[in-house]
Amino acid sequence: MRLFGSLPRVSRAASFVAVGGFLLPAVWFGFSSRGTANGARDAVVQPVQFAQAPVGAVDDGAELSAEENTEPDASADAQILAQQTAYASAGKAPAASRTIRVGLTTKGGDIVLWSPSQMFVSDGEQLGRRLTVPARQTVTFSLGDNQTRNAGGTVFSGPVQINMGSSAYGAWQKPMVWVAGGPTHVSTNGENPRFQRAYRGSFEIAPQIYSFEPAMHKSKLRLVNIVPLEEYLRGVVPWEMSPSAPLEALKAQAICARSEALSKLAGGRHAKDDFQICDYDHCQGYPGIENEKPATDRAVRETSGLVLYHGNTIADAVYGTNSGGISAAADHVWRGPPEAYLQSVRDFSPTVHSATARVVKPRMTEADWTIYCTRNLPSWAQPSQSQINDLAARRRKSPRTAALFQENDLPEFYRWTREVSAAELGAAMATKAAPGTAPMQTATEVRVVERATSGHIVKLAIFGRTSDGSPTSVTIEKDSYIRAMLSGRLGSTTALPSSTFVAIARRDASGTVTGWSFRGAGWGHGVGMCQRGAQNHALAGWNARQIIAHYYRGTTLRKLQ
Ligand SMILES: [Zn+2]
Predict the structure, then answer these.
(1) What does the pLDDT look like over 104-131, one tens digit per residue?
(2) Could you point out which of 123, 389, 466, 529 has its C-alpha 20 to 30 Å from the C-alpha of 541?
(3) CA of 461 to the centre of ligand 1 (A)
(4) 198 Cα: distance to centroid of ligand 1 (angstroms)
(5) CB of 441 within 8 A of CB of 464?
(6) What does the pLDDT look like over 71-105, one tens digit per residue?
């Protein structure tokens, strides 16, 4: 699964165009801006020169045909009621035709919508109140002057104010927006292009009542995209797997994404929020329509409604970028109860990948794992040289697209190395000292206490000395904590790509440990389908059903009615 953390590498420049008193991103008008040759790491904002007003611009001071209507209108009210009933039922027994409510990442204050089609605004709490937004008219939602905060300062109440041109419409409680057709462009006034996207479906905007992760949902206004499941998947699949992947792998990806979304809906993952699923890797990446491609659309269409079941329950078909060659069992990574269909799968063939089969034995010692982690052993998860070359070629051709799509082709996500000194590791462990105890200053030993049969470390102990030379130790459990133990120390937010690794000590001439080479396999949690593996299986002739059956044992595929 991709991390949105990679987005700073996206090189779309955030060019803005002043239109009718608003700053609108140039991309809304079909103007593209170029990134730098080496990708978004060096992303810069480049001015775009317009020879003439962009298509769709609203002239400053133009007569607005916006219309607010509070007169009774039986047919309009019936339509609104039907919409609201559909929204309310979206969380019940899932069906492919239903809509889902996706909480969109927001930043900043106001929410700005723009559509080439007419938009209609109603108020979820003031039946009969309507506002018609002409096509190509920008509409801004902000918290009105009467906003209040609770004691914690994190909960906001309305009302919401809507602005169009020079007109203001106050005291909306829960604006609901639907569009006559076409995509709606959304800005939450952030400078990052991440916050300038286009979506299908309808929207709900309301004061934020709860934020599961404030860092990703900074706005005081919550923005929910209400979108049919299959349309949502058209945005998810190309984000999660390169559209250049073989069709059967894309179809497997579409089935996983559909199943995972419905499983998370049923599980109430965002029960406290006013939406059912979020738009980044906490649930699944959903950047809207921007990345939709014919190949991934076809994969969604050809698997329409197909969902993975275990027994009579929709399977939580989690997947990951690269397993390294052996996928992880869910209970080893997340420490919950075992899940029958999320067990470790050895993703290599005794005949095709015989070198790996000779290393990976039924019972593995630390010496065996050292061989596994330090050699570029063949497996279905291994990117081929042609795939690596293809990635390089695509990067040269389109740095931005490559940065978005090709991460799971990177060879360093199959076998990787991170170097850390004894002082750096000691400093990382100092932050984990129990209250009242002296912090570690220098690490002296890294010891694997427990390793799963998949190779993923379940419990890790770091031994060291405090500033006065006393011995001390820190024990770390759980995949996410083990991988994060060096966060911020190695210039990365997720310092260790996976928890399948060995620590090889470096020593000076006197034999004293000066640091370690962390050598590891795979990228991500490693549970469920390996996205690189799925592509290689498809290249070898497997179809989507075979790929799914390989990674999720004992499951069945069913078509939603
Ligand atoms: Zn989520």
Answers:
(1) 887 767 888 988 889 999 988 888 888 9
(2) 389
(3) 31
(4) 20
(5) yes
(6) 545 565 555 555 545 544 444 444 545 789 999 88
| Nearest residue to 326 (alpha-carbon basis) of 477, 484, 527, 534 | 527
| Ligand 1 centroid – CA 40 distance (Å) | 26
CA of 100 to the centre of ligand 1 (A): 13
Output the pTM of the full model.
0.78
Ligand 1 center to residue 500 CA distance, Å? 25
> For the segment 235-291, what is each residue's pLDDT rounded down to a tens digit?
999 988 888 899 999 999 999 999 999 998 888 888 888 889 988 878 888 989 988
Of the pLDDT bands very low, low, confident and very high (cuts 50, 70, 90), residue 157 is low
How many angstroms is it from 275 CA to the middle of ligand 1?
9
Range list of β-strands (E), 367-456: 415-421, 440-451
Distance 282 CA to ligand 1 centre (A): 4
Residue located via tokens 């010496």: 367
CA of 287 to the centre of ligand 1 (A): 14
Residue 325: CB atoms within 10 A of its CB come to 29
Q: How far is the CA of 211 from the centre of ligand 1 (A)?
A: 11
Give pLDDT tens digits for 385-422. Answer: 777 776 667 666 655 544 444 444 466 789 998 889 99
Neighbours of ion ligand 1 (CB under 5 A): 278, 282-283
- What is the Å distance from ligand 1's center to 220 Cα? 18
Domain coordinates in residue numbering, the chain: 88-307
Query: Is-contact 526 454, C-beta < 8 A?
Result: yes
